[in-house]
From TrEMBL:
<feature type="domain" description="HTH gntR-type">
    <location>
        <begin position="6"/>
        <end position="74"/>
    </location>
</feature>
<dbReference type="InterPro" id="IPR000524">
    <property type="entry name" value="Tscrpt_reg_HTH_GntR"/>
</dbReference>
<dbReference type="InterPro" id="IPR036390">
    <property type="entry name" value="WH_DNA-bd_sf"/>
</dbReference>
<keyword id="KW-0804">Transcription</keyword>
<keyword id="KW-0238">DNA-binding</keyword>
<keyword id="KW-0805">Transcription regulation</keyword>
<dbReference type="Pfam" id="PF00392">
    <property type="entry name" value="GntR"/>
</dbReference>
<dbReference type="InterPro" id="IPR036388">
    <property type="entry name" value="WH-like_DNA-bd_sf"/>
</dbReference>
<protein>
    <submittedName>
        <fullName>GntR family transcriptional regulator</fullName>
    </submittedName>
</protein>
Amino acid sequence: MFDDRRPIYLQIAEQIKNDIVSGALAEDEQVMSTNQYAAFYRINPATAAKGFAQLVDDGILYKKRGIGMFVAPNARDLLRTGRRDSFFADVVDPMIREAKAIGIPLNEIVQRIGGAS
C-alpha cells in the first residue's frame, strides 16, 4: 500500500483525499480514527495522526471532540478545485507551450483531445 518514495503520513493524506474525490467518503462522514487506521495498516499511530493533522490543517477533515474526525462539508469541491488548478499548471500549460514551440496549432490539439476516449 505505501511506497518508499514519500513519507507515509503524506501517503495517508493522499489516500483519504482520493477517497473523498472519488465519493468513497462523503461530506460529514466519519473517517477511521488514527488508532484504527494505524492498526489496520500496521503503521505507527503518530504517523497516522500526522497525516490526519495535515488534512485538518488543510480544511479537508474536521474534529468533533470526543467523537472523531469527519469529512469537511466543502472538502470534495476544495480538492477538485485544487486538482483542477494543478492539472492545468502541471499538464495543460506545459503542453500548450511545447505545442507552440514545435508549431502545432491549438485546433489540432483540441481535435486530438476531442477524439480521445
